[in-house]
Specification:
With about 350 residues, this protein is of the alpha+beta class. It has two domains: about 170 residues, Serine Threonine Protein Phosphatase 5, Tetratricopeptide repeat, CATH 1.25.40; about 140 residues, Jelly Rolls (Sandwich). Helix content is about 40%, strand content about 25%. The strands form two sheets. The protein has a five-stranded antiparallel β-sheet with strand order 1-4-9-6-7. A five-stranded antiparallel β-sheet has the order 2-3-10-5-8, with no helix packed on it. It starts with 5 loop residues before the first helix and ends with a strand.
């Protein structure tokens, strides 16, 4: 597109001197011809005429970046981001084009706004910029700009790239004291079922199986705290069930797994147990705990697990294996609570 001669731009301004966009046009033309100070005056006039109009602010920001006046540029982009989401991508693209470090963007290029910080993190995630995203995530947590949805999405972003340790640490950082020692003292999150399921990759998944298996949180029965996991069997099927589980990041070493199970009227020879195995490979830990059947008060189930250097992720699954007996239809109820996986050496 051919440049408009400066004379024509001045003529247009004389006809409409209050048109901020025309002052921007003139400023851009003067910058192109090397008249930097005259261009600066044009943009100052444009901003005085339209101080809160995002398109004018964005053009001014780009001008200030072009003349290396970063402070004024970021003052404009901050104001835009504080008031509108329309220009997020354009602004973040320019930050990237200028190779602006994430720390600099956080300190000077973002307003004190939950929306803008979250938008910037999602932008970085979309580009797969893991290092910068980690920097921004730490800032979001420190500023308390995070929420459960963002935490779920960020942890999932790391998890899908098999960055399990970083994902677990990011989740723990967000949880803070709510994590109750996760993952250092207990690799299982929400092992007492006191928190509602979050949908995060390191939380429980709980699946029903038609009318044959119903999984709920019971606020009236608990081994510790005030709640437990309740699983009811309908008594009409010989179910093979493994729909309630959690994945846990682990390092090599020996671990002690424990859980408390209470049972009421669990029929058949095949009861409730835990299956703990490598989530990525069948060649690594694959253990099953003892089963619980019949009726019993809270019973502690324990299992020692050796994790080799090749294992990074365990699945902790609550199972009931189908019975081979004639009387194979399972009925009854179990409650599960105080689930933990702790490293012992």
């Amino acid at each position: 597109m051919a440049s408009i001669p400066e004379g024509e731009l001045l003529t247009a301004l004389r006809r409409d001197p209050d048109a901020a966009f025309r002052w921007c046009d003139l400023g851009e033309a003067r910058l192109k011809s090397g008249q930097v100070e005259q261009a600066r005056e044009c943009f100052s006039t444009a901003l005085a005429l339209a101080p809160d109009i995002p398109p004018m602010q964005l053009r001014a920001a780009n001008f200030y970046i072009d003349i290396h006046d970063e402070e004024r540029a970021l003052a404009q982009t901050q104001r835009i981001l504080a008031n509108s989401a329309v220009y997020d991508s354009a602004i973040f693209d320019r930050y990237g084009l200028e190779k602006m470090p994430a720390a600099k963007v956080m300190s000077s290029g973002l307003p004190k706004s939950l929306r803008a910080w979250q938008s910037y993190l999602r932008y970085l995630m979309g580009l797969g910029m893991f290092a910068d995203a980690a920097t921004v995530w730490d800032g979001i947590v420190s500023q308390r700009y995070g929420d459960d949805r963002l935490a779920r999405d960020y942890v999932g972003f790391l998890f899908r790239d098999h960055r399990y340790e970083a994902a677990a640490q990011a989740w723990a950082h967000y949880l803070g004291d709510r994590g109750h020692g996760y993952p250092e003292s207990n690799c299982v999150y929400n092992g007492d079922f006191e928190a509602e399921p979050s949908g995060v990759d390191f939380d429980w998944t709980m699946e029903n199986l038609n009318d044959d298996v119903k999984v709920t949180i019971d606020p009236s029965v608990a081994h510790t705290g005030s709640r437990s996991l309740k699983i009811q069997f309908g008594g009409k099927a010989n179910v093979n069930y493994g729909g309630t589980s959690q994945r846990a990041f682990v390092r090599p070493g020996r671990y002690r797994f424990s859980a408390f199970i209470r049972a009421e009227g669990i029929t058949t020879d095949q009861g409730i147990a835990f299956h703990i195995f490598d989530a990525e490979s069948s060649a690594h830990p694959d253990v099953r705990t003892e089963q619980v059947t019949g009726t019993t008060d809270w019973k502690k189930i324990e299992q020692t697990i050796s994790v080799s250097p090749g294992t990074r992720l365990l699945t902790i699954q609550i199972i009931r294996t189908a019975s081979w007996r004639f009387d194979s239809l399972i009925a009854g109820t179990v409650w599960i609570d105080t689930v933990s996986l702790s490293r012992v050496e």
